[in-house]
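Sample entry (504 residues):
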Amino acid sequence: MANNDAPNIRKNKGTIAVIKELVFLGFLILVSVIGLMWFLRPKTSEVEKRKLTKFPTLTLKGVWDGSFFFHEAKAEGELPGGVNTWYADTYPLRELLIQGDQAVKSLYGKQGEQLISSGQSADEIPDGSLTPEQLAALAGLDDSTEPEPAETGQAPSGEVPSGEVPSGQTPGGDQTEPVTEAPTDVQGAGDVTAPAEKAGDIYITNNCGYGIYYFSQSNSAKYVLAMNTLAESLKGKANLYCMLCPISAGIMLSDSVRESIGASDENEAMNWMYQQMDPSVKTVAVYNNLKSHNNEYIFFHTDHHWTALGAYYAYLQFCTEKGITPHELSSFETMTFSNFLGTFYSRSNRSPKLAANPDTVTAYIPNGTNDMTMYTSYGSKNGGYTEYKWRIVNDVSGYPNSELYGTFAGGDQPYNYAHNPEITDGSSVLVVKDSYGNAFIPFLIDHYEHIYWIDYRYFKGWCSWAGKPYSWISGLVNEKGIQDVIICNNIDFVGSENLLGLMK
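Predicted structure, serialized as tokens:
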């Protein structure tokens, strides 16, 4: 009986093998056909907040040397641009496949801390004050390349383009107050003490992500030189405030965990940079106030920004430095948006740990006005900009859950303005910021009649479009008669060569 069944068993095994091969072949054909559907290929990723790779330009040279098919990235942060990268980056089912991959990994069982690493390491933070020549040497600059002071002469001529917002009034005077250093031994009641193993850009533990900062001697020196150059150009015209904003690892992690992952002491780094700045720069040391409140919800779990509550504690420190009375948090009406999954979530390939702990975005509406004017390149063609009447705190309840931080101050636009009708003293302020400044700006609205804010990454392009004969901060200060200038950058910015170039 067994001998008679043997041919049937072999036949059945052969049939099963053929079915498997046909199923696999059918799967390959299906995914290939989907990949050929050009009209389904996305151009942007909402989760990753970036434009996807474009199809490369077909050239004889590119075909001959192979770069058309495969292009290796040459610069930091650059995506390869060959056909292979375009195909993978814009595949119609790419985000669904990534979600599936993370779902499978989530079944691996109990997992400890996770570090998403670029291999970056930190420089030692120097001691003491340096001369301008020593700073230039540390920055890798010689006398021929050291940045020159920006022009400080006459206000630019020519009419203001139509749609331009009204100007401020009398500029402020020269300031020469000394720098005040903050102590470096502050601990927080909410220090995270879970152990870690090595350095990385994002440290994930207990379903929360933390951004990691690495001190760079050369880049920090370049930042200081840029601030000193700006201080020189604004002397006698406007007060200059510098507010370096810490990122989450420096505030939320205990010193032992921070040291174990190779991250720098953010407070020590900021104090060193403040110490090197011109005495006319009013430094706003926000670290200690944030650290003392780190048992509160001051940084997002899935995103690299601080929350509006974190920005509020920085605002309190600014008010102390400026000598004005801050508004109580209870005086503001709020908007709340749930299920925010930010940059840590996207940069970690949608970590299931972070997905299980989405954020809530709470925004505080200014009392004086919630109206603003912004210029954006979104929807514009040929490098143009469009003027919009917008809200300082905007209702983003219909936005994708990756974009809820966009509720603050219009997002990252090149040029913005708000007029507070509740104040009539002609006071004015300019905030030069990255995206950390967005959550800070709503608290400033109630203290000035004229509030301007620019994103240094895009301001130069707007100046060119708007027909401005300048693209530097002192030019805008001259034109608008701005009294206070606040430079608001997160400290991680200081480590980026590309961003420092844009700031310069």
